[in-house]
Write a sequence for this structure.
């Protein structure tokens, strides 16, 4: 075969090879672009997933912190309310103590209060011979005249011919009375401390409303 023919054949082969190589390279480049694009999309989705998860976690954490803050604020407000209510009842106790010591304060008369406490307790204790347990101060003040006066009031209130006697042992109390039958099987505690304690439980919500209005 002439040399020129050989050269043409070689040139043709080289051209075909070049063409085939270019095609392969083009396909490889296209495939690489696809892989790159897919990888980029996967990366973007992963980033979005991470960001979304982060946002959800941040939102949950914010909600948790807000809930904790609300609980803390409510607890502090309740503590403040309880402290104010305690202070109010402490002042009430001081007023009652002063009233019992002085006998009178403003329009209040301790003797009238004590007589009413004795009468109301006597309405509950169903005996006809009742014992009055008083503190040392009030025990000294209960002479025969005073006993007769309160006996008359009790009889009017109960409709019974009640006989009242003052107990020998004094009561440790600010004031008020414990009324019991002589057999001591039934008694009613109408001391000032007990009445105030009962009153506290009964009206603490009302007191809180007076102090704090609608902020309960």
């Amino acid at each position: 075969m002439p040399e020129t023919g050989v050269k043409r054949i070689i040139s043709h082969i080289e051209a075909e090879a070049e063409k085939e190589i270019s095609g392969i390279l083009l396909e490889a480049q296209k495939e690489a672009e696809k892989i790159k694009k897919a990888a980029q999309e996967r990366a973007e989705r992963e980033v979005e997933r991470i960001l979304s998860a982060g946002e959800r976690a941040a939102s949950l954490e914010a909600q948790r912190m807000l809930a904790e803050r609300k609980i803390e604020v409510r607890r502090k407000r309740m503590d403040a309310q309880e402290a104010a209510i305690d202070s109010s009842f402490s002042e009430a106790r001081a007023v009652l103590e002063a009233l019992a010591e002085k006998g009178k304060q403003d329009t209040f008369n301790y003797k009238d209060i004590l007589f009413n406490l004795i009468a109301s307790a006597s309405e509950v204790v169903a005996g006809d011979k009742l014992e009055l347990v008083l503190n040392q101060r009030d025990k000294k003040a209960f002479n025969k005249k005073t006993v007769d006066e309160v006996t008359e009031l009790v009889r009017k209130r109960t409709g019974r011919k009640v006989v009242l006697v003052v107990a020998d042992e004094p009561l440790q109390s600010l004031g008020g009375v414990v009324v019991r039958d002589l057999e001591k099987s039934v008694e009613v505690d109408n001391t000032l401390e007990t009445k105030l304690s009962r009153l506290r439980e009964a009206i603490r919500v009302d007191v809180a409303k007076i102090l704090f209005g609608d902020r309960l």
Summary: The mean pLDDT is 77. The beta strands are 104-105, 108-109, 129-133, 163-166, 176-181, 187-191. Residues 22 and 46 are 35 Å apart (CA to CA).
